[in-house]
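Give me the 3D structure for undecaprenyl-diphosphate phosphatase.
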Amino acid sequence: MEQLNTQLFLWLNATPDSPRWLINLAIILAKDVIGIIPLVVVCLWLWSPKNLIESRRELVLKTITALLYAIIFSSIIGVLYPHPRPFAIGLGYQWINHSPDTSYPSDHGTFIFTFSLAFMCWHRLWSGLVLLVIGMLIAWSRIYLGVHWPLDMLGGLLVGMIGCLTAQFGWKFYGNALLNIVHKLYRQLFALPIRRGWTQH
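Predicted structure for undecaprenyl-diphosphate phosphatase (201 residues):
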């Protein structure tokens, strides 16, 4: 498995002969695109249509819950099975700065794949597939730039699956209570924007 991981990495990793425009595109994908996801979540919570607001807010909280589970699982795996990044062992070419911490599973992969799977399961298939494509581009970019192995991204996908399954199972026990608590807190903190009609109640 490690041999396959290494071969795939060397095949995907950018070299000094790679087109500069492709490296620049990969840097944007690796560092900036993932910032779209929190923006989408905030917009869904604050400005969804009135007839969809309850289901959209449930989606937001279930997705965040799934992400929290996924982060916990990812952290545990990282402690139990630390794995060096390619540049930490002198393999390939590194095109962006990164600390030489454990690489498996990928934090970026865990984040984007959890969101894509959550939207696929609890929103619409098409929205999940769009996020999945974005996730695959981010995964490619971080391998291309030399800071992750291919299996790190597969690990992020698997941890995202586990996070979503755990959230789905746990939601029946605490979902309604969590929604009520967060709604109450939101209405207190956003009382002025809600009263002015800037955000949904």
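The chain has a mean pLDDT of 93. Let me know if you want a second pass.
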